[in-house]
Amino acid sequence: MAYNPETVNNKLTTLQETQDSVCTVASWIIYHRRHAQEIASIWVTKLKEVPAHKKLNLIYLANEVVQTSRNRKKEEFINAFAPIIGGSTISAYRETPAPIAEKIRRVVQVWKERSVFPEAVLKQIEVGLAAADKDRTDPVRVAAASSSSRPTIPSELREVVAAQTSVSTKVPQATSLYKDAKAQFGETSSMVGPATVQASQLATLLKTLDAAHVAVQGAINDRTTLIKACQSIIEMNSTAIAGEQAFLEELASKRSVVADRKAMVEHALATGTELEQTTLADSWASAQEAANPRSRTPELRSPVVEELTPPPPSAAERATVPSATPAPAPAAPVKRLHPAHGQAAFPDSDDDDGYTPSAGPQQYAPPPAANNGVVYTDKKTAEEKAQELLNSLTAFQKPPSFGQLRGFNNAFANTGDEMEGISLDADVMDLLKEEL
């Protein structure tokens, strides 16, 4: 892969605290030893930027590059790192916690034992580490460092910060591996040559693609975790906003009540009028009742009862439904009694006036059931009913007709012996004689 400063910066950013990661990046850097001075400068800048736990990774990388170059008799990186390694190592040692600082000290001890750097550089590093250890044991300095390094991240955001930190670490690494895999695939795609050479290059390309795939998948997983953590924070704050909105409305309502009360008191003081004997609590209760009308006691009302009588039929219904009330049945013929004696019956004649007195009260016969069980009323008008009633009264006032008297005379003709025991009124006898 071609050299450029951006590539160096990406590789230093994605460097992990593993032997494979350190050795891979170190091999690439050594391959581009012609740019040793520029690479060493980029390394110093990155060492100052990264957090404490990342500084150890860069110390490991510098150690691997320098010792490998020394073993190969290549002096480019020893000469490039010698002027800057002392101050950079001391600064990293001071800024890291004790467990990481102890690992840095072990690396410096290896440099001293193997004489990796010149004696003056190693002496500078030893003095700087001793001064840093003295500062760590000073109570005042320890308290100041503890207070300055105390985390200020809210507990609700710790999960988000952890996820974001992981994303910030893995995304550059995944991007760098993706670019390397893409470039290596482009170089290998036009490969020609013996099968053994192609097999080796293809195996290397396959490892590179697998590494890039794992890195990109890890970045995606971390971003998913970050999104879930952010959504949880959003939901929590949305719920809190709903409650705080209710608090805000309550405070605004109380402020309005207090302002109105203050204006009323000031008006009473300015005009000298008597202040209304109400309290602020009364005003607040009135405002609450006006704002929430549902809280009032509902007025009790008698229930509405539906009437049981059905409504009368409309004019259209009365016109279309025929009357179901049957006409009165004709009375059975009865024997008429003598008006005076009430014993002998008058024979019926064809020339009477048609009056047939009732023999007694008739038995009630219910009308036949109409369609669908509905009984309809008679359609006779009031004038017709009144005329029938008048005719019936007039018929009761009529005296017996001459036909009825002749029937009476025939019944008693040739019964002179039988009449002897019967006493008739003189006027009646005269009428009988005239008739005969």
From TrEMBL:
Record GO biological process? mRNA 3'-end processing
Which Pfam families does the UniProt record give? CID
Alphabetized SMART domains for the sequence: RPR
Specify the superkingdom. Answer: Eukaryota
Q: Which N-terminal stretch is annotated as signal sequence?
A: none
Q: Where is the CID domain?
A: 1-133
- Give positions of region: Disordered: 284-374
User: Known InterPro entries for this protein?
Assistant: CID_dom, ENTH_VHS, Rtt103-like_CID
Q: Which GO terms describe its molecular function?
A: RNA polymerase II C-terminal domain binding
Q: Which PANTHER family match?
A: CID DOMAIN-CONTAINING PROTEIN-RELATED, CYCLIN-DEPENDENT KINASE INHIBITOR-RELATED PROTEIN
Q: What is this protein called?
A: DUF618-domain-containing protein
Originating species: Ascobolus immersus RN42
